[in-house]
Amino acid sequence: TDVKGNIIFANDRFCQISKYSREKLLGQNHRIVNSGYHPGEFFRGLWTTIASGRVWRGDIRNRARDGCIYWVDTTIIPLLNEDGKPYQYMSIRYEITEKKKMEEALRELPQQIISAQEEERGRIAQAIHDDFGQLLVALKIFLVTSAVDVHCTRPAFDEFCESLKARINTIIDRARSISHELALPSLKYTGLVRSLKDLIGFNRSNNKLAVKFIHRNLNNVDFESKDIILYRIVQEALTNIIKHAEARNVTVRMHYKEGKVALVIKDDGKGFDVKDQSGLRKGIGLSLIRERAKLMSAILQITSTAGKGTLIRLSVPVKEKTNG
Description:
The protein has helices at 12-18, 22-25, 40-51, 97-151, 157-182, 187-207, 226-245, 280-295, and strands at residues 56-63, 69-80, 86-95, 210-216, 221-222, 249-257, 260-267, 299-304, 310-317, 319-320. It has eight helices and ten strands. The protein folds into three domains: 12-95, Beta-Lactamase (2-Layer Sandwich), CATH 3.30.450; 98-184; 187-324, Histidine kinase-like ATPase, C-terminal domain (Heat Shock Protein 90, 2-Layer Sandwich), CATH 3.30.565. Helix 4 packs antiparallel against helix 5 (157-182), helix 6 (187-207) packs parallel to helix 7 (226-245) and helix 7 runs antiparallel to helix 8 (280-295). The chain is an alpha+beta fold. The chain has a five-stranded mixed beta sheet, covered by helices on one side. Strands 1-2-3 form a three-stranded antiparallel beta sheet.
């Protein structure tokens, strides 16, 4: 192109990809293939670079004459005059449309995995609630009514029935708890903060654990698909603490700053050796948290000392909500 970006030469390959004839391209501004995908800042930065005589390299999404989108790996080289000023620009491009499609598919893969996991968890939760739970309730009713009939002839049977009813009640409560843990929270309607408050309240009331939840600057965060992963990480951490840590107090902190959401979970339990990968707590619980962190491209740090509790730190890249 010339210094104004008007096309003065195009080879056969460029004509083939853009689907414009050479006659249609010559004299046209390079914006003829602009897809509108890149923000103004993108091209201002490009022009600032090449106008100063420096080479620019990057990926550009263009639109062909028939409306099809294509990507090109682009290198723009300024051709300088005797005064060191650009008088023409030479652009060398390689089509990378298929590569970009593969990258997009890989970006979408974590969300597809999460959706499949949550769908399966939902089915299991529903089955526990509708089938297993209802069968236990029916068994309890049968036991109660049968005990009344037997009571007249075998009074000693009462003690056995009461013990059995207590055990059935424990199983019913546990089935309800598992169903609650597996069920997908209504993040779309309640939001992450409200869902975490409900989760913490449920654990507080059912496990007599003192859990403090502190959050700030989260109203304008666009979590995209990361909200459900963050929810599951907090849930998994609390489950680990309840089962293994023997903790009395837990603090969950979450805040946003400069494109990152920081999540910190701290307990005052017995702690453990982070390097020791044996055992249920380390082998399964924390490995699930690590895998979920990878899905978000998050930075995860886990520190723990015997007798001094455990600290989980997570830094998650996010975007701010756009107006409208």
